[in-house]
Every structure is written in structure tokens, then in C-alpha cells.
């Protein structure tokens, strides 16, 4: 190392000497080398700018369109919230204001205005920073912010200039103007002049007058600084500057200038939300999948004009949205009565726990307040407390419908309102399934040779868990002490019978069967209580598993897309349903479906027949978890399997009482309403029958086909609850006209079977404190609470 320094020392000494005593020849050579070095630097940067291919693709950029199975457009996958409009559909006032203010020699240069650039450079060197970018250079930044950059550096300016020259070589001047005006951002998630016109003036881009045009173009110098909503005075000053520039460029009559300057701003602000479509949770899940597919196949979902054909049926999706909204709104009315100001005030410990989890509480503690001081401060904030109560007590629901023959997703509703709750309760939320898990227990027993007619004693059950712990499952009433068949145990959702079946089969075999049938992403704890659905799962997994039953025991993975085409209609890839994986024997699947018919005919799901008048060949199961935390119902039809979940995002909030929180009264109405309307619209066949249907006795007799109801006598869904008072629960009679032999009606010797998720207890009159606020005069502590 010392030898290297020794050799370099003479060279360094000579160079320093020349710098101290430059010669004329050295100065000339140095000055000549600077342009060469700059040119070399430009050549080095060219590969780091957008290619000609990229620019051509941007010129014909078209977002992917998602179509339903019946050909309806569901959503466009756009880069940003913009609505592209042709230059001819933009007011000339906008174009005139843009050119006069941003680039008045736009039609004379080829991407770079050398005169303006030199002037800007001189002013910048003198301390007055000026921008010298042309419209084309600004477009380069807007289109390629990552490749060009926005830093105030020489490298960025050179890359911007190179890209501008490329754009001018490919785009016409009109195309540059159109692209620029459709890509420039205007705050509030509004991109392009059309969205800006709607956001700030509630009109289309072709309707903008000269004042409105000058206001929007004036924002381009600094959208936040000249925001007409928050900074109206600055916006007016900037607008008037633009008007003056238009006069200088002969785009505006000078005689009108002074009168125009005195005009008020008159903004009509309204945020423009991006269209979510009829199935926003479905399309968001699809977007993630499509991005991965596009990356693997070298496509861009925002630019290449892909056409995605999905499995979803737009008609069924519409019915699902309506059914879920109707029932959820009814239940929200009940919730508002139970969790109103008085009910909320009675849950002091829980409310304090909610408060401690908020950002506002953490901020108060960080500011130095004690726990009590922070809580007291938040409790005094009426707007905060009202918003917290509204958020925590907002009921949620999810719904999914599948075609069991091929796994096609037919309808998908992830929450009540995607804009308020984008969390997907179909494939993201994991909740305890309760009694909807019981069919896996009975299915495992049937796989081992058990028959629906086999019996267990309806008695108290104690199952040792090891370490001295004992599990004692119970029902809503005392055990009868009488024998009960497996069929009756599942139909009436008896926990004591199900626990004994689980004990005889073993948790490992039940978990294995559930996984084979479709519960494949969630972890199942192999413990006895698994029989009652204590391991959280997703609605998508459960509906998929029930579809396996209808498909004669063959599991088919749910699918969303049938094919993808390019913008010209060429098929890029087709997707077929996977071959069924046999999860259980055909005989077991058919037996289990037959047993679950009884749930609907006379068991906990009898509301399907009695309330919704559905006479088709259907089977299903209700589910309710401890303390009414989760309500479930899944219904199977030969052509469609649909399920719903109802609950709250925070499982510490529950429906109070033993009626409304049951799956038979929370989730079943969503599915019942959906099937009722689907059958009425003939989207599914009322006369379709399950494959290999066997009789209700299990002896092989054909299942009696219920007579179809005349069109005029169709039973309609219940009307929404009155706003002033939650509807009182009504007794649900056990239907007698289902074709089930009289011997299979519920034995009256099983006391309390009605309370097992079907027949509600008689409730006392609802006290005033449980009524919604609008149903009673407000007390002094219940003055209207403002929500900001």
C-alpha cells in the first residue's frame, strides 16, 4: 500500500501544481471537455428512462375490466380514481388556461423549451427559483414518477428532458394535452380534469367556464397551497393570475379581465369515490389474484386492457346484497335498542376497555395524563364516545354462495358496507362455527359404519380432558334421560348427543374429515370440544365443505375466474374446475344430506319452510356460539349452497338475550330471503333433487318431493322492523306439511328441544331502557350527541 501511495504522489503533486498555475491550453481543453462529459452523462442516463415500448403502451393504456358470468361489467381496475375523457370533451377554457399559464410556446417546441429553460436557470442561479418544465416534461413526471423522479437535481432534469423528447416523437400535440389533463392529480383522490370538475364544481369537464377552468389550472402550481376548499383566498389570487396570463396569450378578452377578477370562487365540493361495484370484497380478492397472474405472464392489469370473465352471477349477487342488507338493518335496529346510551352506560368495564384500545387514549397517556385522567377526558368528549359506540356496536355479516358441481363462486358479500368495513367476513374473518360444525362429527361416525338410527342416551355427559379437567357439554334444557337417534341429535342440534358421538369417533378423525371436505386453511384443535365448533374457521371454508356433501362427497376448490382475454378478445388462459377430491364415500355424503333435510323440515332450521315458504329439496344447519357471539346458517340445494355469518367485529359485543343472537334468527333470514328470491326468479330449479336421495327413515325410500307453491301464494320475507320498536319474537310452529312421516315429528318427551336454536322462549315486554332512542322521549342524560 505504501508503494502505491509513493507512485501516485508525483502525479498528484503535478496535478495540484497545474491547478494552481493553469495554462491557456489547459483552460481551453477543460472547457471543451465539459460538454463532452455532459453528453456522456446524458447517454448514460438514457437506459434509465422509459423505453419507447413503454411510451407506446402508455399511449394505449386501458384498465382491466371484470365481467360477471352473465356478461355484466362489475368493475374496472384503474391505477387511480379517474374517468378518462377525450380532448374534444374538455372545455376549451381549460386548454387555453393550461397553455397560457404552463407552456405558451407549447406548439412551437419539441418537448424542451430552450429559451424558457435558460431563463429559468439564470433566475435560479440569481436566487429566484423558477420552473422551466414544459407541459411535455410535466407529463413525463406524471406518467413515470419512479423512473424520472421528482427531486430537484440535475439528474432528474436530464431524465425528464430525455423522456419528453421521446414522448414528442410518439405522441401528437393533442394527444399530449389529452394525456396530461387526464393524469394530473387534483387532491382528494381525484385524478384528471373530469374528476376535478366533479369534485370542485359538480359538473363535467366540458361544462367548465373560464373562471372554473382558471381555478383548476391554477392548482397545478401547488395543489395543497392553492386548494380552493381550504385556502380560498390563495385560490382566488392564483385564479386571477391565470386569467391575466390568458389575456397576455390572447386567449381572453382584456376588457373582461377586471370584472372576472371580482367574481367569487363558488366551489361546490363533493368527494368522488371510486366505484366499488356490486361485489367489492370479491373484486378486491380477485385484484390480488390477478396481479400475481399478470406478473407471471408479463401483463399489467392497469394498462393492457385485460378482460376477466368471472364465475359470479350478477343476478344472484344483487339478491345476496339485498337479502343481507334487509336482515342486517333489522338486527341493527334491535342492537341499537340493546346497546343504546343506557345499555352502553351499563357496561362500564367493557366501555373502558374499548377506550384504552383507541389511539386517542394512547395519545392522552403519551401527553402525560394518568389513566384516570385520560379516561375522564375521553368520556367528556361526546363526539368521541358516540363514534366509539357506533363503531363497536355496528353489526356485521358475511354471505357466500357456491355452485357445488364445479366450485364456482356465485355470490360474495364480505360485509354490510365495504366503504365502512373493507374487512372480508367471507375469507378473512375466522370465527367459531358453533353447531354448523356438527355435520363433520356425524359424517365421521357414518364413515365408520354408524347409522342415523343408532342411539345414544340423552343424559349428562362428562368427558375427562386430562390433568383433572373435565368437559361437561350441556344444552338449553336438562337432558331427558331417553334414547335419541343420531338423526335426531343432529336435527335438534343436541350437544350431549354430539359430544358422545365425538367421543366414540375421536377428534382426530373429525378434524381430518373437515379438512378433506374444505376446512383447509384454518387450524382445527383436535380436542373433544371441537364437536361444538370451538375452532375458528372462515365462512368460505364452511360453505365449501357443505358443497362437498352436495357433490356426493367430492371436494372441489372454489374458483373465481373462467378465462382471461386480451383487449382484442384473444383468450390468454382458460380455467377449469379441478377434479373432485373424494373426501368421504358417496353413501355417507348422501346419508348426511338426508339427515340434514330434517334440520330444515322440523328442526332448528324450520324457518326456511315456515317463514320463507321454500318447498324445494334443501338441507342445512344452524349454528350459534357461546353467549350468542356468532350466528351461522348454511343451506344446501342441489344447484346452490349458500351460507351466512352474523356477529360483531369485536366478539366482546353480542346480541343480548337468547333469541336474536341465535343463528336461526340472525343468519337464517339472510339465506332464506336469498333462496326465496332466487327460486322465485327461477335462477335455481325448485324441482331439482339431491343425487341418490334416500327416504327420511334412512331405509332407501324415495324422498317425497314437496308440492311447489303457486306463484300467487309465495311467502314473502318479513317486513323490516318498525323504527320505533323491535319486533317481538314469535313462536315458530313446527311445520307438519313437509312430507315427513308423523313418527319423525319431535318427540314431546325431549323437554326443551325447542330452545336448542329453534323455538324462542317467551320474552317479557321490552323495558324502556332497551328501546331505540327514537321510541321514547330523551331523558336529561340522553340529549342528542353530535358526531363529527
Q: Outline, from the CA principal axes?
A: elongated
Q: Indicate the mean pLDDT.
A: 83
Q: Which percent bin holds the helix content?
A: 40-55%
Number of helices: 29
Explain how this protein is built.
This protein has 788 residues and is an alpha+beta fold. 42% of the residues lie in helices and 10% in strands. A 5-stranded mixed beta sheet has the order 2-1-3-11-12, with helices on one face. Strands 5-4-16-15-14 form a 5-stranded antiparallel beta sheet, sandwiched between helices. Strands 6-9 form a two-stranded antiparallel sheet. Strand 11 and strand 12 form a beta hairpin. Helix 15 packs antiparallel against helix 29 and helix 21 packs across helix 24. The protein is elongated, with a radius of gyration of 35 Å. The C terminus is likely disordered.
List the helices and strands and how they pair.
Blueprint: H1 2-20, H2 24-45, H3 52-59, E1 64-67, E2 73-77, H4 92-102, H5 114-125, H6 135-143, H7 145-148, H8 154-170, H9 173-183, H10 192-201, H11 210-218, H12 232-248, H13 254-261, H14 280-296, E3 307-310, H15 314-338, H16 341-345, H17 348-356, H18 359-366, H19 371-379, H20 382-392, E4 395-402, E5 409-413, H21 438-447, E6 455-457, E7 463-466, E8 469-471, E9 483-485, H22 486-491, H23 495-505, H24 507-517, H25 539-550, E10 554-555, E11 561-565, E12 571-574, E13 581-582, H26 586-601, H27 607-610, E14 619-624, E15 630-637, E16 640-648, H28 663-666, H29 668-680
Parallel strand pairs: 1-3
Antiparallel strand pairs: 1-2, 3-11, 4-5, 4-16, 6-9, 7-8, 10-13, 11-12, 14-15, 15-16
Helix pairs in contact: 4-11, 4-12, 6-8, 6-9, 11-12, 12-13, 15-29, 18-19, 21-23, 21-24, 21-26, 24-25
Amino acid at each position: 500500500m505504501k508503494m502505491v501511495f509513493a507512485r501516485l504522489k508525483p502525479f498528484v503533486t503535478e496535478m495540484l501544481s497545474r491547478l494552481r498555475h493553469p495554462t491557456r491550453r489547459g483552460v481551453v481543453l477543460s472547457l471543451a471537455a465539459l460538454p463532452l462529459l455532459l453528453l456522456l452523462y446524458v447517454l448514460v442516463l438514457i437506459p434509465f428512462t422509459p423505453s419507447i415500448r413503454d411510451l407506446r403502451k402508455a399511449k394505449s393504456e386501458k384498465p382491466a375490466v371484470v365481467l360477471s358470468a352473465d356478461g355484466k361489467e362489475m368493475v374496472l381496475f384503474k391505477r387511480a380514481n379517474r374517468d378518462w375523457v377525450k380532448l374534444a370533451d374538455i372545455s376549451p377554457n381549460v386548454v387555453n388556461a393550461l397553455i397560457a399559464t404552463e407552456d405558451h410556446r407549447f406548439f412551437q417546441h419539441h418537448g424542451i423549451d430552450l429559451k424558457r429553460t435558460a431563463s429559468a436557470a439564470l433566475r435560479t442561479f440569481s436566487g429566484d427559483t423558477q420552473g422551466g418544465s414544459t407541459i411535455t416534461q410535466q407529463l413525463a413526471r406524471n406518467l413515470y414518477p419512479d423512473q424520472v423522479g421528482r427531486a430537484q437535481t440535475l439528474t432528474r432534469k436530464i431524465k425528464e428532458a430525455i423522456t419528453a423528447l421521446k414522448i414528442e416523437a410518439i405522441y401528437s400535440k393533442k394527444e399530449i394535452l389529452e394525456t396530461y389533463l387526464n393524469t394530473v392529480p387534483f387532491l382528494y383522490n381525484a385524478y384528471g380534469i373530469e374528476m376535478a370538475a366533479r369534485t370542485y364544481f359538480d359538473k363535467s369537464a366540458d361544462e367548465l367556464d373560464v373562471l372554473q377552468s382558471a381555478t383548476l389550472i391554477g392548482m397545478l402550481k401547488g395543489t395543497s397551497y392553492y386548494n380552493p376548499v381550504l385556502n380560498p383566498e390563495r385560490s382566488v389570487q392564483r385564479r386571477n393570475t391565470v386569467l391575466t396570463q390568458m389575456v397576455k396569450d390572447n386567449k381572453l378578452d382584456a376588457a373582461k379581465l377586471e370584472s372576472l377578477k371580482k367574481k367569487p370562487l363558488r366551489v361546490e365540493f363533493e368527494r368522488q369515490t371510486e366505484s366499488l361495484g356490486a361485489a367489492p370484497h370479491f373484486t378486491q380478492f380477485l385484484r390480488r389474484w390477478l396481479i400475481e397472474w399478470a406478473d407471471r405472464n408479463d401483463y399489467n392489469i392497469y394498462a393492457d386492457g385485460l378482460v376477466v370473465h368471472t364465475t359470479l352471477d350478477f343476478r344472484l349477487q344483487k339478491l345476496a346484497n339485498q337479502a343481507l342488507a334487509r336482515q342486517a338493518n333489522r338486527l341493527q335496529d334491535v342492537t341499537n335498542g340493546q346497546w343504546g346510551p343506557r345499555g352502553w352506560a351499563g357496561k362500564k368495564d367493557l366501555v373502558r376497555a374499548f377506550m384504552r384500545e383507541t389511539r386517542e387514549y394512547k395519545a392522552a397517556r403519551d401527553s402525560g395524563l394518568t389513566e384516570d385522567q385520560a379516561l375522564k377526558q375521553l368520556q367528556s368528549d361526546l363526539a368521541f364516545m358516540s363514534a366509539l359506540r357506533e363503531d363497536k356496536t355496528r353489526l356485521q355479516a358475511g354471505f357466500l354462495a357456491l355452485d357445488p358441481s364445479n366450485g364456482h363462486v356465485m355470490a360474495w358479500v364480505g360485509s354490510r358496507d365495504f366503504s365502512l368495513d373493507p374487512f372480508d367476513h367471507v375469507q378473512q374473518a375466522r370465527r367459531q362455527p358453533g353447531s354448523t360444525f356438527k355435520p363433520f362429527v356425524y359424517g365421521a361416525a357414518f364413515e365408520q359404519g354408524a347409522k342415523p338410527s343408532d342411539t345414544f342416551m340423552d343424559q349428562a355427559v362428562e368427558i375427562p380432558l386430562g390433568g383433572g379437567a373435565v368437559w361437561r357439554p350441556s344444552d338449553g334444557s336438562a337432558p331427558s334421560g331417553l334414547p335419541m337417534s343420531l338423526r335426531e341429535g343432529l336435527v335438534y342440534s343436541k350437544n350431549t348427543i354430539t359430544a358422545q358421538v365425538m367421543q366414540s369417533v375421536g377428534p382426530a378423525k373429525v378434524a381430518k374429515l373437515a379438512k378433506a371436505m374444505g376446512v383447509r386453511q384454518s387450524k382445527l384443535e383436535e380436542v373433544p370440544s371441537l364437536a361444538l365448533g370451538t375452532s375458528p374457521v372462515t365462512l368460505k371454508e364452511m360453505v365449501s365443505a357443505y358443497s362437498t356433501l352436495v357433490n356426493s362427497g367430492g371436494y372441489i376448490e372454489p374458483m373465481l375466474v373462467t378465462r382471461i382475454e386480451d383487449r382484442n378478445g384473444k383468450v390468454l388462459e382458460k380455467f377449469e374446475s379441478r377434479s373432485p377430491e373424494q373426501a368421504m364415500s358417496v353413501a355417507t355424503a348422501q346419508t348426511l344430506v338426508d339427515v340434514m333435510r330434517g334440520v330444515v323440515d322440523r328442526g332448528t332450521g324450520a324457518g326456511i319452510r315456515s317463514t320463507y315458504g321454500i318447498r324445494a329439496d334443501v338441507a342445512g344447519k344452524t349454528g350459534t356460539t357461546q353467549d350468542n357471539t356468532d350466528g351461522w346458517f348454511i343451506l344446501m340445494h342441489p344447484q346452490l349452497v349458500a351460507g351466512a355469518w352474523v356477529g360483531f367485529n369485536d366478539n366482546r359485543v353480542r346480541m343480548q338475550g337468547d333469541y336474536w343472537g341465535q343463528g336461526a334468527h340472525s343468519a337464517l333470514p339472510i339465506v332464506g330471503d336469498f333462496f326465496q328470491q332466487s327460486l322465485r326468479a327461477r335462477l335455481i330449479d325448485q324441482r331439482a333433487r339431491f343425487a341418490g336421495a334416500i327416504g327420511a327413515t334412512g331405509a332407501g325410500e324415495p324422498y317425497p318431493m314437496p308440492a311447489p307453491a303457486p306463484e300467487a301464494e309465495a311467502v314473502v320475507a318479513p317486513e323490516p322492523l318498525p323504527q320505533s320498536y323491535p319486533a317481538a319474537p314469535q313462536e315458530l310452529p313446527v311445520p307438519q306439511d313437509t312430507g315427513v312421516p308423523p313418527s319423525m315429528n319431535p318427540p314431546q318427551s325431549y323437554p326443551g328441544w325447542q330452545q336448542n336454536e329453534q323455538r324462542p322462549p317467551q320474552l317479557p315486554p321490552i323495558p324502556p331502557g332497551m328501546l331505540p332512542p327514537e321510541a321514547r322521549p330523551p331523558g336529561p342524560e340522553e340529549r342528542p350527541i353530535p358526531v363529527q
